[in-house]
Each structure stands twice: as C-alpha cells, then as structure tokens.
Amino acid sequence: MGEGSNALEWSEAFDVLPDDESDPEPIAIRKFEADNELLTAAHRAQNKYTQGNVVEGTIGSADVWNNELDRIALFHKNCGTSVEEMEAASVAQIASQYKVPFLGIRVLSNNITNGGAYDAGTGEACQHYVLDVVVEYMKAKQAALK
To answer: Which residue ranges does the record assign to the Nucleoside phosphorylase domain (predicted)?
Structure first.
C-alpha cells in the first residue's frame, strides 16, 4: 500500500467489447446487475451461513489480476467495489446474452488486502451457501407456479 499503481507495467487486458463505443448497447454490459429474485433468495439463505458474514456488495471483475493495493483501493473508492476477482464478469456476460438469471456469490479468505492465510474450507462453505440460495430460489419459483 502506498507504492502507487503503474498501468504501463501491466500486460494488455482482453476486452470482449467492440472498439467503437458509439453504440451504447455494448457499453451498458460493462456492469451487470444481480437478478432480483436470486438476490432475494440469497438474503433468505444468509441466516443458514455460519462460517462468516454474508455481505451484499459490488464485485469488481476483469480479465486481469489486480494485485496492487493502491489500484484495488482506487476501484473501491471510485466504483464502490467490495471485492475483486477474475470470473464473474465473464459468467454474467454469457448469462445476460442468454437471458439466464445471474447473481455473483464469492467467498473471501486469503487475499492481498487482508494478508489472510489460505483456508480450503472457505470454498466448500461457499458451495453450501450457493446450494442454499438455489434451494430458496427454487422454492420461490415453485410457489409462484401455484
């Protein structure tokens, strides 16, 4: 922290969007909102998650690994990110194109911002929470059919 961020040292990131940004449609997909029904299901399932805290926030996702603390802090300040990673945007883009409901769920253990040690159990805990969210989502869908 405090060493700055030098974008000239990064390898060029892969951008799946067109170079011509005059059409607002592709530009709009740089941000993906959570599906409201999935988000509601996540809220209903959060009391079952006991391995940590469930926090609603913004996932900063890109096809580049961010490991500069100052850059991560800049995204947090300017974009309101709660966490950053490399997968959710790609999944959200495909879900959006095929009109599949999407919600990004991440578990945090070790990362550059907290200096935490790796704990393999965090991934398993996230899987259990995701299953609980899906169960709540399907219960709501089933109830809506009645």
So the answer is: 21-115
CB 41 within 8 A of CB 136: yes
The residue written with tokens 């988000």 in the block is 39
Rounded CA-CA distance 32/92 in Å is 6
Cα separation, 80 vs 83, whole angstroms:
9
Domain assignments of the chain as residue spans, ordered by start: 36-145
Give the SS3 label for residue 58: strand
pLDDT of 16-68, one tens digit each?
565 666 766 655 557 889 999 999 999 999 999 998 889 999 998 877 777 77
The pTM (predicted TM-score) of the whole model is 0.77
For domain 36-145, the CATH superfamily is Nucleoside phosphorylase domain (3.40.50.1580)
**Alpha helices of 36-120 — where are they, by DSSP H?**
36-45, 69-79, 88-97
Task: End-to-end CA distance of the chain: give it in Å, rounded.
Answer: 55
| Amino acid in position 136 | E
- Please count the other Cβ atoms lying within 10 Å of the Cβ belonging to residue 142: 9
What distance in Å separates the CA atoms of residue 47 and residue 31, rounded to the nearest whole number? Answer: 28
Task: Provide CB contacts within 8 A for 92, sequence distance 6+.
Answer: 32, 61, 102, 104
